Amino acid sequence: MRLLLTLPLGSVWDTWAQSIGTTTSLFPLQENADTPALFPMPPCGHFNLEEATIDQMQQAISNGTLTSQQLALCYMQRTYQTQEYISSLLQLNPDVLSIAANMDAERKSGITRGPLHGIPFTVKDNMATKDNMETTAGSWALIGSIVPRDAHVVARLREAGAVLFGKASLSEWADMRSNNYSEGYSPRGGQARSPYNLTVNPGGSSSGSAAAVGANAIAFSLGTETDGSVINPAERNAVVGFKPTVGLTSRAGVIPESEHQDSVGTFGRTVRDAVYALDAIYGIDPRDNYTLAQESKTPNGGYMQYMTGKEDLKDATFGLPWNSFWTLVDDEQKTILLDLLALIESAGATIINETEITNYETIVSPTGWNWDYGTTRGYPNESEYTVVKVDFYNNIKTYLSELKNTDVRSLEDIVQYNYDNDGSEGGNPWPLGIPAFYSGQDGFLASLETKGVKNETYVQALEFTQRSTREGIDTALNYKGQRLSGLLVPPDIGQTYQTAAPAGYPMVTLPAGVHSNTGMPFGLAIMQTAFGEAELVRWASAIEDLQLASGNTIRRTLPRWHGYLERNIPVLNV
To answer: Which helix or strand (DSSP H or E) is residue 467 part of?
Structure first.
């Protein structure tokens, strides 16, 4: 993506030029390869923006060290520095400086809307913005289409005073289109890459959202998850990722995949930053009837009140579904995560082993993430994919019906567009299409075959996947009559978030370490029951506080940019 923006002349430009200067070279030097120094982040005037928290940004703005405009401009500089390497931003908001100026003016007049006032953020390019940016899910098929309104979550962040910086790149159509593809690739955005290792799977489908936060190219970001698309990229970019209960955050105005599983989540470099974003976006929305389920199940005053410290871990009792997930972890990661678990126990927490997901042998694939595992076992009426295929056909038609300035109205139209533009959209399998979509658009074709009919197989699959996963998690959380604080799981094992996905249950992941051979991060996640976000905030913040106080590397560390000169497509699944 080319970062083209006409910057205003006069005081804004002069202030920016004086504050950040041009003395620091933005070129990565070969002698710094495989170190964080490869892409050093220049200071934002007199403020050290690298790894800065939202609270620290607010303090700098409040004491006059920084303005929201300068903050936006410094993130533009950082994006310019990293964009050609990680492609985390799909489109820059041409109005970003005007929005930031308005927030500065409000603050000067004595109005501060809240903790996100004047803070830049991005959203995944499947969230509608009623402005001068496109909303396309990374596809050329929707270029030029005009959305009827902001997505509800975008509108909520604007109301909170946050500054919309742009659209983050993603796996096209949030991974629905293909079953063998290059994670993080879209025709409009190119190949998004993790700053930790540019050659491997960056996690997806909210790839650019997580990569930008991990690379210090934005303060926070929003993503969406149907099955892993927040938790997976968060842990593979060493950031905090919150995937809320389905129904806690509205999906209105979000390009859909499955109404039963889609959830809008948040990314931050700290738990507090991710919770600030969560507090701003959750709530009931008449345009999404699933949000009605949160009535009387959410706290007055938001989730920030549940932030705690390491000393609170003495009151925690966690479950460890060892046979369900932990036996699948590689040896190096297991060693590091067990060290973290020992650290948590040393702070006073109790961890009970073998609190298994009920009937995990049936619902958890032993060979890796597989949302069609029911069909693999010979039972499509027990498959998550059976549900998603039908939901997508119907849900995308509903979304497209409200667009203007486009002829694309159905999945049939999208499929035909991809065939007609095979060289850019990869309608056909490789080698006829493009290498990023090795299997072409087989996911779309599988959905198309259903015609959206909710037949008996669909009904049985929906009932089985929801019941089995909910019972499985809830039983594990109620271990021998004792209510646990959460289930500690290794999110690098895709079957963890795949179990939470059909249940519609929430998860949070924390950075926990990196693999020595690839430099890729992995996390430690907590799984909870429906609307258990308060517990997730309580214990994630306590564990994070313990990590930061420990002084070791079992926490978020800066990216080392391995393979920064390589441009392989597809990326490696290691």
So the answer is: helix 456-477
